[in-house]
Structures are given as C-alpha cells and as structure tokens.
Amino acid sequence: MNKDDLQEPIAEIDGLDEKILRLITKNARIPFLEVARECGVSGAAIHQRVQRLLNIGVVSGSEFILNPQKLGYNTTAYMGIYLEKANYHRKVIAELVKIPEIVECHYTTGQYAIFIKVQTKTNKHLKKLIDTQLQEIEGIARTETFISLEMEFKRQVEIV
C-alpha cells in the first residue's frame, strides 16, 4: 500500500475551532476582532487559531469569488468524459488544464473517467470548445454534456 491509498487524516479541532470556522465560512472578510468578540477570546487567540487551521490544512487560502454571469459567461456545463483507456487520465488531464473555460476537473469512478465543469459565454462558445479543443485531445473517446439551467444553491461542508 502506498501513501496515495491512505485516507487524509482527520484534523483535531475543538469547539472554539468549530465556532471560528462557522463564522469565517459565512463571511471570509469578518475582522478577527469581531470573531474574538463572538467567541469570547482575544484577537491574538483568534489569529493563532486561524493560522493553525491554515497550517493543518482545514482552511486554505482566501479568495474573491467571481460571478461568471457578470463577466459574460452565461453557460455553465458539466461534462462526463469517457477515455479510450483508463491509463490515459493523466495525459488527458494535462491537456484539460490548458483550457481556461474548464473551472473544475475530477477523476471519478462510475460511468465517466473524468467529470469537468465548464464556463462559456454562450452555447455556441461551448460547442466550439467541444468541437475544436476537447475532441482533439488524444485519449478522449467521447463526452456527454449537461447544461445547467440555473444553480439552485452552493454551500461548503457544514461544521457540526
């Protein structure tokens, strides 16, 4: 058994960590002093806790989330990718990462070898991407596309 076969260890977090996570996942821009007031501890304690959560990988980075529609990307599609051979997945993923419209890529079990999320400006843009880029990648046998009509909700894992 190699290290890739092992599950990620579960991080040791306590009640204060959970309360901090609930607050900062609702509003990543909340000031640490406000978190400290809500938790009944010092700002320095919050800073240390958040830094520890970053160091152990419970929290990663901070980012501004772009609204694709406001930037003109009005078509969201999900695509299942069938491979000619299963061992082509690394080569195919190396090509997929070069396509900026692909915003997520998952190596999966089940019907598809790879499942991707694509943001394009229009359905015509999506069709062109499929015809001129995806179908040209060596190792892809075929694709199955699902266009999202509307995202109903999106959320992070609940802190319980």
Describe the structure in brief:
The protein is α+β, with helices and mostly antiparallel strands and 160 residues long. It is 32% helix and 19% strand.
Fraction of residues in β-strands:
15-25%
| CATH superfamily placement of the largest domain | Lrp/AsnC effector binding domain/regulation of amino acid metabolism (RAM) domain
Q: Which CATH class of the largest domain is shown?
A: Alpha Beta
With strands numbered from the N-terminus, the spatial order across the biggest sheet is 2-3-1-4
Please render the helix and strand layout as text.
Blueprint: H1 15-26, H2 32-39, H3 43-55, E1 75-83, H4 89-96, E2 102-107, E3 114-120, H5 123-132, E4 140-148
Antiparallel strand pairs: 1-3, 1-4, 2-3
Report on the architecture of this protein:
The protein has 160 residues and is α+β, with helices and mostly antiparallel strands. It folds into 2 domains: 13-55, Orthogonal Bundle (Arc Repressor Mutant, subunit A), CATH 1.10.10; 68-148, Alpha-Beta Plaits (2-Layer Sandwich). 32% of the residues lie in helices and 19% in strands. It has helices at residues 15-26, 32-39, 43-55, 89-96, 123-132, and strands spanning 75-83, 102-107, 114-120, 140-148. It has a 4-stranded antiparallel beta sheet. Strand 2 and strand 3 form a beta hairpin. It starts with 14 loop residues before the first helix and ends in a 12-residue tail after the last strand.
